[in-house]
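Structure in, sequence out. Go:
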């Protein structure tokens, strides 16, 4: 269901973006394609802001789409999201299968808002059925903004390149102070400890990062500890999160 747009200027952009021809079928003039792309990009931001504003506070949960329901990673994804939901947090995922589905499922059983931010891919990601609110993006960068803007924590379960991309995007934004600090939690020590060790032994030892940068990551196997880390940080910085959420310059 489309959101009802409440801002007159934003509505004009959204209407133009929805009406814009698919960039694959615009005349071959590249400049024309670029112009229409601007409207499509604006449309994705406007719709994201309109539909996600009510979900705050939320936690963004990441992990592999390749995980099957019988996997221990899937089961812990459901359990963890359920606990976060009972703690009062909405759950945002990438909207696909695997751990994303598990987290949306846990959000639903926990009675929280369950949000899926789907991305259109050549292999066509199929939205999972546990997301109560589903958005569909053409552009990764617009989607990334939505993961960050309404979240007060990232929980990262085992995953591949896409999951790693989200982890280091968040760390970069926090390190450079483009966003306020929030917890980035790597869940499952056995899976993540090799990467954390490499960061310590190579990146830190060669002064590519600082000890303060390394401390931006939390490593745990405990669902209750994860919830407590996020709750403590949220209560401590609640007013800053709320100010930042309404700041148009925040990613």
């Amino acid at each position: 269901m489309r959101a009802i747009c409440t801002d007159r200027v934003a509505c004009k952009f959204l209407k133009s973006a929805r009406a814009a021809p698919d960039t694959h079928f615009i005349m071959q003039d590249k400049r024309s394609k670029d112009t229409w792309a601007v409207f499509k990009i604006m449309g994705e931001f406007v719709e994201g802001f309109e539909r996600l504003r009510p979900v705050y506070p939320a936690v963004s949960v990441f992990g592999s789409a390749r995980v099957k329901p019988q996997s221990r990673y899937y089961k812990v994804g459901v359990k963890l999201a359920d606990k976060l939901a009972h703690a009062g947090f909405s759950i945002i995922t990438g909207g696909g299968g695997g751990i994303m589905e598990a987290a949306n499922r846990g959000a639903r059983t926990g009675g929280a808002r369950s949000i899926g931010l789907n991305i259109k891919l050549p292999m066509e990601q199929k939205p999972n059925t546990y997301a109560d609110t589903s958005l569909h993006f053409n552009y990764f960068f617009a989607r990334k903004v939505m993961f960050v803007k309404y979240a007060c924590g990232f929980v990262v379960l085992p995953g591949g390149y896409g999951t790693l991309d989200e982890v280091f995007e968040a760390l970069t934004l926090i390190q450079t102070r483009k966003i306020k600090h929030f917890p980035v939690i790597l869940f499952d020590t056995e899976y993540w400890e090799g990467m954390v060790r490499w960061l310590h032994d190579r990146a830190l030892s060669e002064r590519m990062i600082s000890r303060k940068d390394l401390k931006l990551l939390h490593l745990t196997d405990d669902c209750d500890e994860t919830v407590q880390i996020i709750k403590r940080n949220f209560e401590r910085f609640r007013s800053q999160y709320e100010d930042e959420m309404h700041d148009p310059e925040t990613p």
